[in-house]
Design goal:
283 residues, Rossmann fold, Hypothetical Protein Tm841, Chain: A,domain 3, 2 domains, 6-stranded mixed sheet, 11 helices, 44% helix, DegV, DegV_domain_contain, lipid binding
Length: 283
């Protein structure tokens, strides 16, 4: 069984090779240049461009890419699962469903599930890891898809951004809110609910917002000392390490995965974004 994911997982390229997961790279556009995310450009380069004043744009996987891959799989009598970036943040999921359904017209026995992760960054990555785990247990396509669906409600996402201007450019917050937020040094705390970015609190100062993220992990997480907590950052490793240290001190967390937020999401949240992902139920 093939498992697919796109570059919004923020998992490193090495993961895809080691876990036998196929990558669908999203597209990154800077000035007149068009890149395949992770393959043609890396996140650090994107953050450097943003700091230079550029405004990168991103786009979804092309319908042709999905169609060609799904047709090849069907012709070979293979099966698969694509865990997709949240349908509330990208059109990739809906495009993949349309292309899968088109292939089914020619190959009605094609076993292929497209799952809307309703997640982003390493929260999405955690669900891809779950799909790999379920596949290794010998489950069917339907069972893997169902297991990922169950896990969606068990993964918590909390994050903040350093500068609201980046989200204003992407239409995530109003320009007025961004301007006032910048003047007052206000840092938003956001949550992902049903695949959407939902602002839940406003906190004054970077130090206080990191402290609040730690509190939210304690309020929503279980068995934190027995699970891997995932942290992603917008080219701010120091903040990620600070969050890691505070989580270890507060809850005895021992296992972490820390990654830079990739180009697909980093283009919209900007440098300095900080996210934490964890399970809200025992695994």
């Amino acid at each position: 069984m093939k498992i697919y994911a796109d570059s919004a997982t923020d998992l490193p390229l090495s993961f895809f090779a080691q876990a036998d997961v196929e990558l669908f790279p999203l597209r990154v556009h800077i000035e007149e240049h068009d890149y395949e995310d992770m393959l043609g450009i890396n996140a650090k380069e994107v953050y450097d461009k943003i700091r230079e004043g550029h405004q990168p744009k991103t786009s979804q996987v092309s319908p042709e890419t999905f169609l060609n891959e799904f047709e090849k799989l069907a012709k070979n009598g293979e099966k698969g699962v694509y865990v997709a970036f949240s349908s509330e943040l990208s059109g990739t999921y809906n495009t993949a469903v349309m292309m899968r359904d088109q292939v089914l017209e020619t190959y009605p026995d094609f076993e292929f599930a497209v799952v809307d992760s309703k997640a982003a960054s390493l929260g999405y990555g955690m669900l891809v890891k779950k799909a790999v785990e379920l596949r290794s247990n010998g489950l069917s396509v339907a069972e893997v898809a169902e297991g990922v669906q169950v896990a969606i409600a068990q993964v918590e996402h909390f994050f903040t951004v350093e500068d609201l201007d980046y989200m204003a450019r992407g239409g995530r917050v109003s320009k007025t809110s961004a301007f006032v937020g910048g003047l007052l040094n206000i840092k938003p705390v956001l949550h992902v609910e049903h695949g959407k970015l939902i602002p839940i609190e406003k906190v004054r100062s970077r130090k206080k917002v990191i402290k609040r993220l730690v509190e939210l992990v304690g309020e929503h997480g279980v068995n934190l000392d027995k699970q891997t907590v995932h942290i992603s950052h917008g080219d701010d490793e120091q903040a990620a390490e600070e969050l890691k240290a505070l989580l270890t001190e507060a809850y005895g967390v021992q296992q972490f995965e820390i990654q830079m937020i990739g180009s697909a999401i980093g283009a919209h949240v900007g440098p300095g974004a900080l996210s934490v992902f964890f399970y809200n139920t025992a695994q």
